Amino acid sequence: MKSKFWKIFLPAVIVAVLGFALLNATFMLDFWWQSCLKFIFWRNVELTGNWIMAVMQASFIIIIALISWLVYRSKIGTIFKAAFTMVPVAIVLVFDGILFFRTPALAYSIGAVIMLGVLALFYYKKFPWLYYYSVLLVALGLLALGLTGTDI
Fold it and tell me: Fewest beta carbons less than 10 Å away: which of 31, 60, 116, 151?
């Protein structure tokens, strides 16, 4: 008979640790992707406050969407999929924060709608609790960073 530790606590810790590692890898990939785009297309262009930054972020969201589609269609376990769920949620919430950083109330409102939509989808599709945990963990972490003024 499995104890509650093995059924609840251990998977939650694995999702948190693995999700954090995947987030770090994702943001390093984002840096690499943007650096390559700048080098190839916009070497001598000042990018601050430019529409090009939004295009670069949107292109990265498309990459993450494709990777997410592959991950969720694969036969890997629930724990890995739940941990990976942190990645697309964080990317969308960070992009929301970047787009609306001048109006934080709007950014937080849009983020809340996104979160509720994701959680409603999970409820409708009857996803395991680890997915909810993953989404709430990344949302609370990003909220804490945003409210304390910490940069990613």
Answer: 151
Confidence (pLDDT) at 113: 95
3-state DSSP assignment of residue 97: helix
Q: 122 with 136: CB under 8 angstroms?
A: no
**What six digits make up the tokens of 62?**
């498309």
Can you give the C-alpha Rg of the chain in angstroms? 17
Name the residue range of residue 125's domain: 4-148
Give the tens place of pLDDT for each residue, 122-149.
999 999 999 999 999 999 998 888 888 7
* pLDDT value, residue 97: 87
Is-contact 26 91, C-beta < 8 A?
Answer: yes
Torsion of CA 38, 22, 98, 34, to 10 degrees: 0
Q: How many domains, the chain?
A: 1
Q: What is the pTM of this model?
A: 0.84
The structure tokens listed for 104 are: 């934080």
Torsion (CA) 57, 79, 10, 117 in degrees, nearest 10: 60
SS3 67: helix
